Amino acid sequence: MDTAVAGGFSPRNGSKGLVLKALQLLAAAVFAGWLMIWIVMPTNTYRNGWSIRIRAETDSTYFGRQGSNILINTFPILFISVLGCLYLHLVKKSDTSQSSIHRLAAWKRPVAVNWPLGIVSGVELTFCLMFLVLLVWFYSTFLVANFSQLHQTDDGVKLWQARLDMAAVWLGFVGDLCCAFLFFPVARGSSLLPLLGLTSESSIRYHVWLGHITMAVFSAHGICYIVYWAVTDQIDMMVKWDNTGTAYVAGEIALLAGLTMWAMTLPRIRRKMFELFFYTHQLYIVFLFFYLMHVGISHFCMILPGVYLFTVDRYLRFLQSRTKVRLVSARLLPSESIELNFAKSPGLTFEPLSIIFINVPGVSSLQWHPFTVSSSSNLEPERLSVIIKKEGSWTQKLYRTLSSPVPQDRLDVSVEGPYGPVSKNFLRYDSLILVSGGSGITPFISIIRELIHQRTTLNRPTPAVLLVCAFKTAADLTMLDLLLPISGNVSDLSGLELRIEAFVTREKSATDEAQTNIRNIWFKPLPSDVPIAPVLGPNGWLWLAAIVSSSFVAFLVLIGILQRYYIYPIDHNTNQIFSYASRSVLNLLFICICIMAAASAAVLWNKKGNSKEARQIQNIDAPTPTTSPSSWFYNADRELESVPQESLVKATKVHFGGRPPLKKMLLEFDGSNVGVMASGPGGLRHEVAAICSSGLADNLHFESISFSW
Question: Where are the domains of the chain?
Answer without folding.
Answer: 323-533+661-704
